[in-house]
Amino acid sequence: MSYRPTLTRTWWLKNTAFKVYMLRELTVLPLLFFLLCLVKGLYSLSQGAEAWYLWLAVMQNPLVMLINTLALLASLFHAWTFFQLFPRVMPLEFGGKKVSAPALVAGQWAGVLAVFALVAWLFWG
Amino acid sequence: MELEVTIQRYLPEQSSEPFNQSYTVPYDTSTSVLDALTYIKEELDPTLSYRWSCRMAICGSCGIMLNGKPMLGCNVFLRDYVQTGMLIEPMAHFPVERDLIIDMESFLTHLEAVKPYLISKDSKESVQSFDPHNQTPRQLDKYQQFSSCINCGLCYSACPQFGLNPEFIGPAALTLAHRYNLDNRDAGQAERMPMINSEEGAWSCTFVGYCSEVCPKSVDPAAAVNQSKVTSATDLIFSLLGGRS
């Protein structure tokens, strides 16, 4: 008769690797909030000036700004974990030679900077 | 020098639940956990059961959980646990037969299911020819890292997805499937893909990544499993376009 251990709901509290994993997965929650804000903003835009200004006012609420700042930090943290995993999942070759992992990670961050620069130019340029 | 070693015992003829038992073990700088287990069995308590064979991290028989982390008993030393103490448990996520002996049946079933051997273009079974199969260093490099697996199963004890669902094919078996798919001498990818594409295949992995952290041979199963997702997605596109299955 064998003994069958079962995994409890708190299995992820057992070690640091699991906690970091859960933190990575949890980043979806503030991001979900940000996406809902974005969808509501687009809908408000289609409903006329009054709805749009009301949405803008809600976006300036300190609590909403706090959660959206958290969403930005969460997405950057998720990107950091994702960029590190990318070279292991999609090893790339260029001219018959393997592209090094640091180069792939740096390339992805360069992409993030390019997007930030584009957004900054669009809104403040 | 002496260290107290606590072991999770399970003696089904005595109790249906496991219990902890502590032993005081003498050690020096070269005493491994496997040496400690052997000392306990030979000098203190002959009822202790555990598996071992090579004593040099090659056979993969002596997997245990040491303070909650999957490790090979022969590959870890008492000298590093003086401050923290030592709790030895059987490998997680497997049924326990007795003390540190687990039932690896599910692991072996998954391993067999992915056909971890060269399948030739002709026979569809295995490579029949005894002719040499030459490979260039670049062809070897594609899969070599993934071929170092010793089937110790530590990655299964590190994988919460396998812990939650034992039907998940799991890190080592998916890594071996990927290893053979990457081998230019092999023609068996079409036979392996249905298993890799299935719900219990590569897509059950959520890239916790702990399997790669505990692998004693630096195989990086998490990378192999997630590379398999790329292969699986490519396979789906090809099959939708009416190409290879």
UniProtKB/TrEMBL annotation, chain A:
- Supply the alphabetized keyword list: Cell membrane, Membrane, Transmembrane, Transmembrane helix
Matching Pfam families:
Fumarate_red_C
Transmembrane regions: 21-43, 63-83, 103-124
Task: Quote the Gene3D superfamilies the UniProt record gives.
Answer: Fumarate reductase/succinate dehydrogenase, transmembrane subunit
Q: What is the name listed in the Swiss-Prot or TrEMBL entry for this protein?
A: Fumarate reductase subunit C
List the source organism: Marinospirillum insulare
From TrEMBL, chain B:
InterPro entries according to UniProt: 2Fe-2S_ferredoxin-like_sf, 2Fe-2S_ferredoxin-type, 2Fe2S_fd_BS, 4Fe4S_Fe-S-bd, 4Fe4S_Fe_S_CS, Beta-grasp_dom_sf, Helical_ferredxn, Succ_DH/fum_Rdtase_Fe-S
Residue stretches making up the 2Fe-2S ferredoxin-type domain: 1-94
Under Pfam families, the record lists:
Fer2_3 (PF13085), Fer4_10 (PF13237)
Q: Which UniProt keywords apply?
A: 2Fe-2S, 3Fe-4S, 4Fe-4S, Cell inner membrane, Cell membrane, Electron transport, Iron, Iron-sulfur, Membrane, Metal-binding, Oxidoreductase, Transport, Tricarboxylic acid cycle
Listed cofactors: [4Fe-4S] cluster; [2Fe-2S] cluster; [3Fe-4S] cluster
What does the record give as the reaction this protein catalyses?
a quinone + succinate = fumarate + a quinol; a menaquinone + succinate = a menaquinol + fumarate
Membrane protein topology class: Peripheral membrane protein
Please tell me which top-level EC class this enzyme sits in: oxidoreductase
User: Which Gene3D superfamilies does the record match to this protein?
Assistant: 3.10.20.30, Alpha-helical ferredoxin
Q: Keyword DNA repair: yes or no?
A: no
Could you give the cofactor binding note from the entry?
Binds 1 [4Fe-4S] cluster. Binds 1 [2Fe-2S] cluster.
Reported EC number(s) for this entry are 1.3.5.1
The residues covered by the 4Fe-4S ferredoxin-type domain are 139-169
Give the CDD domains listed for this entry: fer2
Compartments reported by the entry = Cell inner membrane
Family to which this protein belongs: Belongs to the succinate dehydrogenase/fumarate reductase iron-sulfur protein family.
Q: What is this protein called?
A: Succinate dehydrogenase iron-sulfur subunit
UniProt organism field: Marinospirillum insulare
